Structure formats: C-alpha cells, structure tokens
Amino acid sequence: MKNQTNCVTVPVIRGDGIGPEIWDDTQPVLEAAIAKHYGDTRGIDWLFCLAGQAAFEATGDYLPAATMAAIETHKLAIKAPLSTPVGEGIRSLNVTLRKAFDLYACVRPVSWFPGVPSPVCHPERVDMVIFRENTEDIYAGIEWAYDTPAAAAMKVFIQEHCGSLSFPFPETTAFGVKPVSKQGSERLVGAAIDYALKHKRVSVTLVHKGNIMKYTEGAFLNWGYALAETKYADHVFTWRQYGAIAKAEGKLAADEAMKAAQIAGKLIIKDQICDAFFQESLIRPETFDVVATLNLNGDYISDALAAQVGGIGISPGANINYQTGYALFEATHGTAPLIAGQNKANPSAMLLSGAMLLDHLGWSEAAESVRQALRLTLFEGLVTGDLAEGKAALGTKEFAAAILHRL
Ligand code: NAD
Hints:
Bound molecules: nicotinamide-adenine-dinucleotide
Distance between the termini: 25 Å
Strand content: 15-25%
Structural class: alpha/beta
C-alpha cells in the first residue's frame, strides 16, 4: 500500500491480445497526471486481477471468483479488452461482468480530437455523451432456437394471446424476448439527466423506435418524459410539454415557453426515432448532446458515432450503476489479435477510459490533464498506425511516451 493520504485501490484487468501492452503504457500516464496535480496526497494502488484467456491458462476459469471478489470489495475496476471464448453456452465475459454488478448505464463520451482522421467533413461538430441501457432489451440474451420445446411453447402462447401466429414461417421461427421495464428505463434516463445537469449540457435526447415497438421502446420514451417532468420538473423543459402547450394554447405560446426555459438555463429533453437519429447525427451532429437510449440502439449508435471521430481505437467507455456506485471502466474495442504483441496498438481508448476513472474519483484536474496531453500529441500529428493513413506512425510505447512528455 502506498503512503498517500488518499490512496484508492483499483482492480485492474490487463486483458487479452493487445490488452496488456495498452494497459502497461496507460498506467504511467495516469500516475503522472495524479502526481502532477496532487503530489503525494493522492494515489492509486493497482490491484492486478485475472480474467479472460490469461485467467483460464492460470486457473482453468475465465472469470475467477477472486477477480469478482476484488471488484465487489472495491466497487471499481478498469479493464483492457477480453477475448470472448468461442463456443456454445459460454457467455461474453463483458456481459457477465455488467450483469453481475448490475452496471445499468454504459457511458460513452464521443468527441473529436483535432488531428485525428475522420470520414466526415466536420467531426468537430460531434460532442455527445451516449447513455446506453446495459441490462435489458433484446440484448438480454433471452432467446430460443427454432426447433426447441421453448420455441414450440412460445407458438402456443402467441396463438392463445394474439389469436394467430402472425409471422410468415412459423415452422422455422426462432424467438427472442425484449424486456424493457419502468425502473430500468427510469434509472437510465435519470442517470443521463443527472449527468447533463451536472456538466451543464444543453439537451438530453431520448432515442427510441417507439413508433413500431410501442410497449417497449415507446414505453421507454413515455417513462423517460414522465420522469423528467416530475422528478426534474424545476430543471428541465420537455418537447412533450412544448407539444401539450402548442395543442392547448397554440404554437406561439409553446415557442414562448421554450424561449423562457432556455433563458432560465433549463435542460431541454427531446426525442428522436432511432433511424432518423442515425441520419441526423451524420448531417447535424451539433443538435445532439447527451443521448439516452436502450441497449441495442445504444450498441449501434456508440460505434457509428465513434467512427465519426476516429474509430474504436480512441473510444473510451464506462459501465456504471449510479445507485450502488459500482463502476467498470474499459476500452470499448476488442483484443485486436492480429496486431497483439507488436507494439502497434493505439492506447488512446484505454487512456481515456482511465481519465473517466479519474473523473469518477473526483480527480478531474488529473483527468483533464490526461485528455489535454493526448490532444496535444494528436494535434502535432503523432499517431499510431490505425490513425496514420499511410503516413509515419509511432509504436504504442513511443506514442505513450510522447503523451507522457507533454503531460
Ligand atoms: P477488435 O476491436 O479487436 O478489432 C477490430 C479492428 O480494429 C481490427 O482491425 C483491430 O486490429 C482494430 N483495433 C481494435 N482496437 C485497436 C487499437 N487499440 N489499436 C489499433 N487497432 C485496433 O474486434 P474483433 O476483431 O471483432 O474482436 C477480437 C476479439 O475481441 C474477440 O475475441 C472479441 O470477442 C473481443 N472483444 C472484446 C471486447 C471487450 O473486451 N470490450 C469488445 C469487442 C470484442
């Protein structure tokens, strides 16, 4: 244990593939940022825990009980990517961790660092924070193969409750279930609103497909608006309120109410159907700020937006339960096995996830220094191979050293 007044123990999973190399180059940068701002008064004791292939080789278990116990004790962890064992019945380790600690909010900030190549003309207009619900939806993995007794039972159930099997090929139809609850929707939307208020963001957009999936995605939208209009009544103005005023008193009155809300600095809660969101976030990304959405939409949206600002090599993430305080920070990309062990991986996503961990600890000055050092490095044209577009590239170690130097 270090001798700092405020020393936090953080379990670390170094991961598989490129995981160990990107972690080993991230750790000194985080430590330097902490030392720069707090000297000896704050520090982190990294508690190395096994998971993934390395864990299997050492213990015969992909996710050893000792690792789960360490996260349970410290309520925190940071992880590099893990390879998901391929095979029937073996669940993704990432999904297992999210479920075990009920990490219901997947938080992914997406903004552009000048110097990073992008496929869009104006990546600087992208500055969003995605709140993806992490525990429910069709993504929950409740599904049955077409030829199982469960699928047969589903057909009987649907026949009884819907009057007929209204799909074209009942004999070969498999089934999945899309659970979406009031509590699950409210805690996710609440987390997004809390974040937006705390960070003085302008809007929260509820992204949904409620026009088609009325009782799941539509309910998410309604529960989200209802929560905003009750719990956060003094701090927000919703498009639904705007619509109600327009209907009762006319558009002029609704415009006046919107203007008053904006002058009062209220957070605007709006919504967008998911397919339209994909188009709008490409054409007018500046109109979105914090985004709250269900699991599958969030999965697609996060990667699509990451692509606009330079791709998965530079996209951090956190999985958080804001009610219990459990939090798991992770680079969102995979183990990139083809470049593992070659000093070619981009450590930025890992580093930015570390900055999110520092923010979570309330050590925001250190977090901002990490981001600023990365920003300067990229601005000077120093990049790893994934961002080099044929130009000279630095290796993982040299890139991390350049960041450390600027710090
Ligand atoms: P991947 O993210 O590993 O790779 C996709 C592409 O991006 C590859 O071309 C890879 O070389 C490149 N890439 C990814 N991260 C990079 C980085 N930091 N720097 C430079 N290039 C990078 O996805 P995949 O190939 O689909 O999956 C490989 C393994 O990773 C699988 O076992 C999968 O289950 C696992 N995976 C884990 C996580 C996680 O732990 N969060 C997420 C996704 C995939």
